[in-house]
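Hey, I'm writing a tutorial for new members on how sequence and structure tokens pair up, and I'd like a real worked example in the thread rather than a made-up one. If someone can provide the structure for the chain below, I'll link this post from the tutorial.
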Amino acid sequence: MSVNGGGPPESDGERRLRRQAAVAAVLLGLVIAAVAAFSTPWHLLASGPPDPARDFTAAQIARSEAFDAASTLPGYLSLALTLIIAGLLVATPLGVKLVAWLKGPWWLRVVLGIVVITLFTQLVKLPVSIWGETLLRGYGLSIQTWGSWAGDRLKNMGVDAFMLSLMLLVLVALARKFRRWWIPAAVGAFALTVLASFVYPVVFEPLFNDFTTMQQGQLRTELLDMAERDGVPVEDVLVADASRKTTALNAYVSGFGATRRIVVYDTLLKAPKAEVELVVAHELGHAKTDDVLYGTFIGALGAALGAILLFWVFEPVRRRTGVKGLGDPRAIGAVIGLMTFGSLIMSPAENVISRHIEARADLHALDLTRDPATFIAMQKRLAVTNISDLSPDAVEYVLYASHPSSPERIAMARAWAKLNGVPVQ
């Protein structure tokens, strides 16, 4: 029996292949752990315990708690539905039944099957998504029309389906051709992750927002001067037309090399100039340490590991779902389910690393501007405007927090001020 065949239990040769894949997965997992352990900035600046009451009014804290309480149930319900759907795809013939009626060559059935499963998943979760959007509207965070909201969801579905199609077409093709398909699949997963991160800013981001060069003026000049002083090559600062959809404030850096860009929301430009400069200084910190490239590298290694683990775990999944093997187009549902579980399992570890990287960028902004008072004012503005959770519980912090909480960031700014002898309240 081949790896992709049905019928009797595994042969000795197949068990040997799975052992080889297991050894490769362990070795690559150790490499990832070592890279993360030695490159993540674990020890930055000790600070006192966060104290929301010191910087936020009782009304602001109450509003944050009310929004968190209102959004917790739909958030957990969405997570539960994600787990249930993934579980059904992995442990039952649901995925097979959803795509079994599709006709045509195997590659067409893979693409159409991905579209069907994506639509099925989104339809099941649609009521919860509408609930969440209604809450954002009720608290004034979302101002886009329902048509615009639906359009963004369709675009997201299209991007997800496109990326899944690229991955699974290659994966199924390799499984149909090679017994040790996990080797070229791991290489391909690594390469695709790097390519996607590189092209995302110029191919996919414009689908959701329009980006324009920050208009000539004092702010643009000072931001570019600050970047030059920091030794970070930045040819331009882009402004996203986020105000069409949200009142939230944000900025980010994406891409690397020729596609690296620093983007600020147009909503942020309403803040005082010094606060905008601090936000950009934070993003310069990401650019200076190549955090996007580092994250891409870690993510690419993780994708390669996922491809190897898929080979190792797929045999028992194959038996439960009733497919012949990974070369069978009907297997894509099980693969999508396994990818979902892998992403959820890795998320807490990714968040831990992300929080430390974000804290390092905060320290960079403080070192560059030497203005902790404005940093604190900026964090307060961001927290109040975005209705951030000022005291996240342990579960939410582990599952969702990719950044330190606002009180944590403020506490670090005060610790920096004390260490550098800069007066601050």
